[in-house]
Amino acid sequence: MAEEIKANATEPEYVIEMLNITKEFPGIKANDDITLQLKKGEIHALLGENGAGKSTLMSVLFGLYQPEKGCIKKNGEVVKINNPNDANALNIGMVHQHFKLVECFSVLDNIILGVEPNTAGFLKKKDAREKVVALSQKYGLQVDPDAMIEDISVGMQQRTEILKMLYRDNDILIFDEPTAVLTPQEIDELMDIMRGFKAEGKSILFITHKLAEIKAVADRCTVLRKGKYMGTVDVATTSVEEMSRLMVGRNVNFKVDKEDREPGEVVLEVENVTVPSKIHKNNAVTDVSFNVRRGEIVCLAGIEGNGQTQFVHALTGLDSLSGGKITLCGHNITKAPIRQRSKDGMSHIPEDRHKHGLVLDYTLEENLVLQRYWQPEFQKNGFIKFGAVREYAERLIGEYDIRSGQGPITTARSMSGGNQQKAIVAREIDKGPELLVAVQPTRGLDVGAIEYIHKQIVAQRDQNKAVLLVSLELDEVMNLSDRILVMYEGEIVGEFDPKTVSVEELGLYMAGAKRQEKYSRRVEA
User: Fold this and answer.
1) Residue 432, number of CB atoms within 10 A of its CB
2) How far is CA 168 from each of CA 135, 158, 165, 519, rounded to the nearest angstrom?
3) Residue 241: how many CB atoms within 10 A of its CB?
4) What are the tens digits of pLDDT across the range 48-62?
5) N or C terminus of the chain with fewer C-beta within 10 Å?
6) Domains along the chain?
7) What is the Cα–Cα distance from 97 to 77, expressed in whole angstroms?
8) Which residues are paired to 79 by β-bridges?
9) What does the H/E/C string look like for 55-95?
């Protein structure tokens, strides 16, 4: 590593250098002697498996953690970053994987929070609004300054986070998994925005699992594996296969292997389901009907914000519907509570792992039995059998490669986002459901974990179970599905065979430009 630093000494001065950084947590060395050097005006990707130490390293740079060893230099001078205020003073900004926004505040209030313009203690929002509007127009980050965070899409929330950095005049920008919650269209927009930042001379550190995105925008890529530095490569001259091999230590199969199957009996029957909207008078979902049979994976595809979330909430019992009927394995579950749906054979990998998937302050083992703790296997006369819970958790941790510093007793909040996701997937699949509802199941996962989760989903289908997949990832939609249903503005507008439809054709239906005749709107008499 010392040799590499010497070799780089002849290159132009680095705007940021993180030299020999070591950061430890109980039971784990998250960063083990890592060196990262960022040039001015470059997009530098940080690649690694879930739990490899990427977010920890960036949190050290942003002042959220203090390293046990190592130092940070800006423009060749050693700096001490004790907290995010110190980072902002050095023009370092960060968009976190899980946004740091106050949901009951407006977009404008979130952007100026902590640096509110004032005169003699009186808030001056007019000047702030003008600056925010000017920045949003300059960078193509269109937002409504008066909208409440809780009412806008995750894409809009991310724009708010980016505007927070720009409002503070940051020129070193850290993006932690910025595309994990975005639609394909929003990802393309973000890539263009990042290129614009680079053209202006801003320097970007970009954490991602998506190799295609690294090839699209990054200049160089530093790879971490299990907390250790594996090397820095030139993106233009390094193949996707080489980067993935550096990341996971083995060759990764990017194609989903599955054989053709003849679907069996209907497991899920959805009839004329309508779900009211919480933010406007129109329905979020209108008159949706379809079925899912044994031995098939049906994908509900669409651009985010077209009713998929509200439909899944109604299907799984998180919200009520205003019309229609849902039948699972012959049982009418239209008004059934969530536990009853679970007992009837439904498992749910939720879209928002923090809000609906985990109790963040519970341990990993407690989260792994959330859906089953009342079963005889885990309790007797109302008392939890902790030995059985521990044994069960250790089995799932091993089978699903869930990485955590203290094993079963690790607090869920302290785990990386990808390992939180793997814990939810393990819990829901291990229940042995008749219907698996998988919403964005590989969001935030590295290529090795994605390969594994895809195999698990196909295994469910091959065990004659029914799978309803909801995904924004078009590669996942095309590779994993047996049947694709496109949802637009709360309605099904087309049904497709992934073997015969093109991505471009799907895109037209997802954008509302086309609609199959069998799904044409009903005309009221």
Assistant:
1) 11
2) 11, 16, 5, 49
3) 12
4) 877 788 889 999 999
5) C
6) 2-91+171-248 (3.40.50.300), 100-169 (no CATH), 266-354+434-519 (3.40.50.300)
7) 29
8) 72
9) HHHHHHHCCCCCCCEEEEEECCEEECCCCHHHHHHCCEEEE
- Whether this model's pTM surpasses 0.85: no
Question: For tokens 């390992």, what's the residue?
Answer: 419
- For the segment 462-478, the average pLDDT, to the nearest whole number, is 90
Whole-number Å distance between alpha carbons of 178 and 194: 11
The SS3 assignment for 49 reads coil
Alpha-carbon Rg for the chain, nearest whole angstrom, is 24
As a whole number, mean pLDDT of residues 177-182 equals 73
Question: Could you tell me the end-to-end alpha-carbon distance of the chain, in angstroms, rounded to an integer?
Answer: 76
E-strand stretches of 374-414: 379-380, 383-384
> For residues 206 and 48, is the Cβ–Cβ distance under 8 A?
no
**Band of pLDDT at residue 474, cut at 50, 70 and 90:** confident
Cβ proximity of 433 and 457 under 8 Å: no
State the helix-helix crossing angle for 417-430 and 447-462, rounded to 10 degrees.
10
Rounded-to-integer distance, Cα 358 and Cα 339, Å: 16
Give the Å distances, CA to CA, from 11 to 14, 37, 45, 399, 524. 8, 11, 19, 45, 71
Q: What's the pLDDT band for 180 if we cut at 50, 70, 90?
A: low
